[in-house]
Recover the amino acids of this structure.
């Protein structure tokens, strides 16, 4: 594993970003110029507030594929802190929000850079069976946020799972 896949550091925050692979996959990000893009289209106020108020440049996030085979597949770095999500203002964009008024977006986005693919995907089903992950927001009933906090101990536990050859 690359140098990033190391134990959590106290000066960094950790996150999980969810995406449907049919909409935008880790492979899509990996194939972007410079392996970087903006994380747009978030239309939940709590997730927006995380990006706008708490995510910092240098924070790391797991890239999670939701859908048919849900699981963590990669690691990204936040390269630009929250700024207005312009896609909310464009009627031709799939993330257009007609409630955006006066040319100002109430939504935020961050820029991300793909750091590495995990050696293997960590399926949701495997994470559910790990006591060290039981407090992870992803595993809580009804948790549907596309941007979630990940604790340092949970970060380390997922990295340990990634290093194992099988679940």
């Amino acid at each position: 594993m690359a140098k990033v896949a190391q134990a959590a550091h106290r000066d960094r925050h950790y996150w999980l970003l969810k995406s449907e692979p049919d909409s935008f996959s880790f492979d899509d990000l990996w194939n972007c110029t410079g392996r970087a893009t903006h994380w747009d289209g978030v239309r939940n106020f709590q997730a927006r507030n995380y990006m706008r108020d708490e995510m910092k440049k240098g924070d790391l996030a797991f890239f999670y594929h939701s859908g048919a085979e849900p699981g963590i597949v990669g690691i990204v770095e936040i390269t630009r802190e929250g700024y207005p999500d312009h896609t909310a203002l464009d009627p031709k964009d799939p993330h257009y929000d007609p409630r955006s008024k006066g040319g100002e977006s109430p939504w935020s986005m961050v820029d991300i850079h793909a750091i590495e693919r995990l050696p293997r995907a960590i399926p949701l089903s495997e994470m559910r069976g790990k006591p060290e992950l039981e407090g992870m927001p992803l595993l809580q009933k009804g948790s549907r946020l596309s941007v979630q906090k990940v604790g340092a101990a949970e970060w380390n536990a997922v990295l340990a799972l990634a290093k194992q050859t099988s679940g």
User: Anything to note?
Assistant: Residues 152-163 form the longest helix (12 residues). The chain has four helices and six strands. Residues 24 and 76 are 14 Å apart (CA to CA). The chain has one domain: 14-163.
